[in-house]
Amino acid sequence: MSTAGNTRRVAVLGGGILGVSTAVHLLREGASVVLVTEAEPASGASGRSLSWLNSAGERATPYHQLRLAGIDRYRTLFAADPTRDWLRFDGGLHWAGTGSEQDTIARHEHERAHAYDSVLVSPETVGEHTSGISAEAVGAAAILNPGEGWVSLPHLIGFLLEEFTARGGDLVTHAGTSRVLVEDGRATGIGTPDGRTLPADAVVVACGPQTPAVVAGLGVDIPDASPVSMLVTTAPVEHPARAVLNTPRAAVRPNPGATFALDHDWYEESITQDADGTYSIPEEVVHELAAEAAALLEGRPQLIAASWKIGRKPIPGDGEPVLGELEPVPGCFVAFTHSGATLGLIVGELLAGEIMTGRRHPMLETFRPGRFA
Questions:
Q1: Which of 89, 82, 67 is CA-nearest to residue 151?
Q2: What pTM did the predictor assign?
Q3: Which CATH class is domain 88-149+228-310?
């Protein structure tokens, strides 16, 4: 279908970082864009993401390269205003469990072999590289990645939505569970539960863990391995720790407002689903996570869990991102990945480019949804 004039109209389904980023990049490219969200923007997986900006450890080369490009875009954003308290580059610190020192050393050597900035540290030397970490908590061998950072996705989404509005984007919130409309085998827009039809020349599905269900309605299978997870935000506490911590019992990152964000996976079996579809966890488990996090910090400050959010964490079945146009449904593009934070800006840029030019970007070739056909 075509729209008035030469402006290409695109409908984006999903108010997380991938949907909002793609919508803004489309506007920058001259498209007319309607962004449709089930509830409020950032109310889904983006609102409960640890959002650690990294490409640490071992992964396939194309994935590593895409993540590095993603970090590069964040560095550009950071350089424009280094005073933002929701985007920082203060490094990441990782260690494995007791007895896994050789695994940590092997990971360090792999990172160095790929020119990824990686420093092997010990309890005795960690203080020379980053502040506020309890030396007693650090494993016998740990890795400090100085170039890593973090972002608060709700803050970033709010920042991008200001540009979205200024560029004339159309935002439709609280639309409920919407669907992709198809005519003659091609995506033609979005339909909302209240009967509204939002016509478009192309559609982007970026609904986090709901993405496989949305495209299943189009006859497309994307394997889904999304688990249920939790993000805890602490009450404000003044502390000098600045690095993102990834350890055997707690993942910790600084957060705006002198708070910390806490995450891990050992407690996932304690999460239950209620009759209304929401999730619950015993408060004592939340407090246990806060205590585990406090033990990592110098002086063992009291970390009080002020709030926590539970929901499904988007992870494709094979662990790799799913990005690009659906071959069985031309005009419908998907963005589904576990690394939504790190890839948020670059994926929005590359997908917008493909939609507007019709040319497939080589960095996305490995991640096409057609690999599951």
A1: 89
A2: 0.96
A3: alpha beta
Q: Alpha-carbon distance 286 to 309, whole Å?
A: 11
State CA 361 to chain mean position distance.
21
Q: Could you give the CA distance from residue 303 to residue 290 in angstroms, rounded to a whole number?
A: 6
Whole-number Å distance between alpha carbons of 135 and 125: 8
Torsions phi, psi of 258, nearest 5? 60, 30
In the chain, where are the structural domains located?
Answer: 9-47+154-224+317-372, 88-149+228-310
| Tens of each residue's pLDDT in the chain, 373 residues | 334 446 899 999 999 999 999 999 999 999 999 999 999 999 999 999 999 999 999 999 999 999 999 999 999 999 999 999 999 999 999 999 888 999 999 999 999 999 999 999 999 999 999 999 999 999 999 999 999 999 999 999 999 999 999 999 999 999 999 999 999 999 999 999 999 999 999 999 999 999 999 999 999 999 999 999 999 999 999 999 999 999 999 999 999 999 999 999 999 999 999 999 999 999 999 999 999 999 999 999 999 999 999 999 999 999 999 999 999 999 999 999 999 999 999 999 999 999 999 999 999 999 999 999 8
The answer to whether the beta carbons of residues 53 and 104 sit under 8 Å apart is no
CA distance 270 to 289: 12
Q: DSSP letter string over 174-197?
A: S--S-EEEEETTEEEEEE-TTS-E
| Secondary structure tally for the chain: helices H, strands E | 7, 22
One-letter amino acid of 234: T
Give the Cα separation of 12 and 52 in Å (integer): 25
The answer to whether 9-47+154-224+317-372 and 88-149+228-310 have equal CATH topology is no
CA–CA dist 86, 99 (Å, integer): 36
Only one residue has tokens 């992870």, namely 315
Closest CA to 22 of 369, 340, 363, 367: 340
Q: Can you give the length of the chain in residues?
A: 373
Domain 9-47+154-224+317-372 class in CATH: alpha beta
HSE-CB of 365 using CA atoms within 13 angstroms: 7
